[in-house]
Write a structure and sequence with these properties.
Length: 202
């Protein structure tokens, strides 16, 4: 997937995402049910960034060979399944030019695929190197004034709106990610910022 980018900008991005989640969770009076072995959000495929892919590969490198090879094998199998239905991904794995409707269709078709790094006990085998989406998943989202739970598990818990300061911090985090992606793009000279989760392990 290209040359790795070791950058303080990238490193601080992942640290900032984890810190934001901890602060947001604390502000919601620990009403968020996310915890070890709660893996509802680990099922299904979704887009990740090239920065996430770099982080995932760092996580793979830290594993023992047996674990690493098993994860890569699962990811390879999933990529094969996806490309059998969407052959264009073989030549264009980056998603930036794909229509949202097509990406929605892919996500729906493969909604039952578990993350390649999901352990048999429901834990993440590369937790310290998980993508930004995984680090921030679980905090209720707001759209057009409506607050919704982040996953089906949260339908049974109180849904509370984040404070304005934490919402603003979320916007700054997105800007930080965009800046880090821009820097990575300049270094790697690659087209596209996003790819589907299984590709990040390869």
């Amino acid at each position: 997937m290209g040359t790795d980018v070791s950058s303080p900008l990238r490193t601080s991005l992942f640290e900032s995402a984890s810190l934001w989640f901890r602060r947001a969770r604390a502000s919601l009076l620990e009403a968020i049910p996310c915890g070890r072995a709660c893996c509802e959000c680990c099922i299904g495929i979704f887009p990740i960034t090239r920065l996430d892919a770099q982080e995932l590969r760092r996580g793979l490198d830290a594993l023992d060979p047996t674990q690493r090879e098993a994860i890569v094998a699962r990811a390879t199998n999933q990529v094969g399944l996806i490309e059998a239905s969407y052959p264009s991904l073989r030549s264009t794995p980056c998603l930036d030019e794909w229509a949202d409707s097509t990406l929605d269709a892919i996500a729906e078709q493969f909604a039952d695929l578990p993350c390649p790094a999901l352990g048999t006990d429901g834990s993440c085998l590369v937790y310290a190197s998980r993508p930004i989406t995984c680090r921030t998943m679980g905090i209720p989202t707001e759209s057009n004034g409506m607050v919704e739970g982040a996953c089906t598990v949260q339908t049974a818990v109180p849904i509370i709106r984040l404070s304005h300061s934490l919402q603003a911090e979320s916007v700054r985090l997105a800007e930080h990610e965009a800046a880090a992606l821009f820097v990575a793009g300049q270094v790697q000279s690659q087209r596209g910022d996003e790819l589907l989760l299984p590709y990040g392990f390869l």
